[in-house]
Write a structure and sequence with these properties.
The complex is a heterotrimer. Chain A is of the alpha/beta class. Chain A has a single domain, classed as Udp-n-acetylmuramoylalanyl-d-glutamate--2,6- Diaminopimelate Ligase, Chain: A, domain 1 (3-Layer(aba) Sandwich), CATH 3.40.1390.20. Chain A is 39% helix and 15% strand. Chain B has a five-stranded mixed β-sheet, with helices on both faces. In chain B, strands 8-9-10-12-11 form a five-stranded antiparallel β-sheet, with helices on one face. The radius of gyration of chain B is 19 Å and the shape is globular. The chains are: A alpha/beta, B alpha/beta, C mainly beta. The complex binds zinc ion (2 copies). One zinc ion binds next to loops of chain C.
């Protein structure tokens, strides 16, 4: 699935400029070291972490996007950094599990 | 208020679908859960987790068991083959929390649990009659700063006392979460603190008086996601005051007095309705 | 079998969760970092010879090594304390100059740094740095951008650098994540 398609389908809010890309899997974790060591390149990463650090990790692994769950407020510093490094950040009001099962039902793998 | 949908899933089915092993709680009857929550951040679990749920987490620490207890989770699944240590096991066993361990990662676990079919009939929990304390009871406790081994123990005791008195479980949960946040603040940022719990049939008050760095700007600290300027300052204790938004959210009244380099007095009030 | 002609294909291995502990000696003002594999961060004040160590802070992190999927060659990463993404800082910063150069072709600069104090501990050598760089670039298979990893030696004063260090902040606390 393409990122822009996903945004429409799941009513995600784009917090940064969006560069459309293919989603190649989903990774859930709130631990950066975890994402750094295990997430596959191109994955969609769902987390409630909003610290600037998430941009460094997403950029390093080249994730397709970060979805901030629980509708958490993302600080401006994180958004600015993400725009500068072309990291896509989206937001959903749903908790991680609820959004994850919606993706499963829609067949996003 | 909107009725919330509850899904009931038997833990046995979760165990099978995740090919998990049960670490603690094998002998607990009626093993079912009413919700699923996936997170590695315990602040998040305390703030948003719903009681009766199962927690999916990759974090293997005593804080996980304590947070699950505070937020009244029924079970914990440790992901990616993590096995809890004896402290966690003992705590979970004492609090009737079921702990499972699976090789699955968080997404895989969500997928598998979402695919579990066949719901068991909804078992309505019988509302226990609320028996309020007739007289005011008072208990005091001490917290030592930097004592991570006992972090969370004071709020655990407070929760147990309130339970034995027989307050409403939702009220107890709010008190437990607020007290836990405040306790963690002391452990991380202060030298020590005295805690006093006063419970009556009208109000429950928890006051925490610490000796420490104090909070420079209380208004700022009350904002969610409040941060101090630099890592160094944070390491030196200027991060004190984190967790206040969650305490405020869970309490009926919150009063903070603080003096920089002396300490902070937090009074948290809950009305018994 | 280690094959000199092998075009190595790296995978991450020996992943261990750990804490990175930051200690400070009030007497000599020395700042140190080290890994701890204990279950809880060891937070203590203790005397060691002429030093009086105090814990300044700790964060959760991981240790790992890299191994070639084809020939089995193992490259240990024991000296790696962390990775920092250069986000631009002082004009005279060597890492920043490099970043400005490489940013045009979407190559992102990360600093692989060792433990504090930098002048007393062994930092990563050239091979480790290049293996680390290859590993991340191989992992970013279809990517339109690249990763450049440089040694922490390039940074003169680490505490003045604005870079963004990859680590888990406050994982064990119940406070809201730092913004
Ligand atoms: Zn090879
Ligand atoms: Zn720099």
């Amino acid at each position: 699935m393409k990122l822009k398609e996903l945004i429409d389908k799941f009513e995600l809010k784009a917090l940064t400029n969006i560069e459309d890309t293919h989603i190649k899997g989903v990774y859930l974790s709130d631990m950066l070291s975890d994402v750094m060591s295990r997430a596959e390149s191109g994955s969609l990463w769902m987390t409630i972490q909003t610290h600037k650090n998430i941009v460094s990790v997403a950029n390093l692994i080249d994730l397709s996007a970060i979805i901030i769950t629980n509708g958490k407020n993302v600080p401006d510093g994180t958004i600015e950094l993400a725009n500068r490094f072309y990291v896509n950040i989206l937001s959903s009001p749903l908790p991680t599990y609820e959004l994850a099962i919606k993706l499963v039902e829609a067949g996003v793998k | 208020m909107q009725e919330e949908e509850t899904h009931i899933i038997e833990i046995e089915k979760i165990k099978d679908s995740l090919q998990a092993q049960i670490i603690t709680g094998n002998n607990i009857p009626n093993k079912f859960i009413t919700g699923v929550y996936a997170s590695d951040l315990m602040s998040d679990v305390l703030a948003y987790g719903k009681s009766g749920s199962i927690l999916l987490t990759g974090l293997n620490s005593q804080q996980v068991a304590i947070s699950a207890y505070m937020a009244e989770f029924k079970a914990i699944v440790l992901l990616r083959g993590k096995i809890p240590n004896d402290d966690i096991k003992k705590f979970a066993e004492g609090k009737n929390i079921i702990v499972l361990s699976t090789q699955a990662d968080m997404y895989e676990a969500c997928v598998k649990i979402a695919n579990i079919k066949g719901e068991v009939p909804v078992i309505k929990e019988v509302e226990k009659p609320v028996s309020k304390a007739k007289n005011i009871t008072e208990h005091s406790f001490k917290i030592d700063g930097q004592d991570f081994a006992s972090a969370g123990m004071v709020s655990t005791q407070i929760k147990a006392i309130l339970k034995s008195i027989g307050y409403d479980s939702k009220l107890i949960r709010r008190i437990a979460i607020s007290t836990y946040e405040a306790e963690m603040n002391v452990v991380m940022h202060a030298k020590k603190a005295d805690v006093v719990l006063k419970a009556s049939d009208e109000m429950i008050k928890v006051s925490i008086k610490d000796e420490g760095k104090g909070i420079k700007n209380i208004e700022l600290a009350m904002k969610e996601g409040y941060t101090t300027a630099t890592e160094e300052q944070r390491a030196l204790g200027f991060g004190a005051g984190m967790g206040l938004p969650n305490i405020k959210k869970n309490s009926d009244k919150l009063n903070i007095e603080s003096e920089v380099n002396k300490g902070t007095l937090i009074k948290i009030y809950f009305f018994v309705r | 079998m280690q094959d000199e002609s092998c075009k190595h294909l790296w995978k991450i291995t020996n992943i261990k969760p750990c804490f990175i502990i930051n200690e400070f000696c009030y007497k000599c003002k020395k700042n140190t970092t080290y890994f701890s594999l204990e279950e809880r961060p060891p937070i203590e004040r203790y005397q060691e010879g002429e030093h009086f160590w105090n814990t300044l802070g700790y964060d959760q992190s991981i240790r790992f090594d890299l191994q070639c999927k084809k020939c089995g060659k193992l490259v240990k990463m024991e000296e790696l304390a962390g990775l920092m993404m250069c986000t631009g800082c002082e004009d005279n910063c060597k890492v920043y100059s490099l970043m400005k150069e490489l940013e045009k072709e979407r190559t992102w600069v990360y600093v692989a740094f060792g433990f504090l104090p930098f002048d007393e501990t062994k930092q990563l050598d050239k091979e480790q740095i290049s293996v680390l760089e290859d590993y991340f670039n191989q992992r970013r298979k279809s990517s339109t951008s690249k990763i450049k990893i440089v040694s922490g030696d390039l940074i003169e004063n680490f505490s003045l650098c604005y870079g963004n260090i990859i680590k888990d902040v406050d994982m064990l606390s119940s406070k809201p994540p730092e913004n």
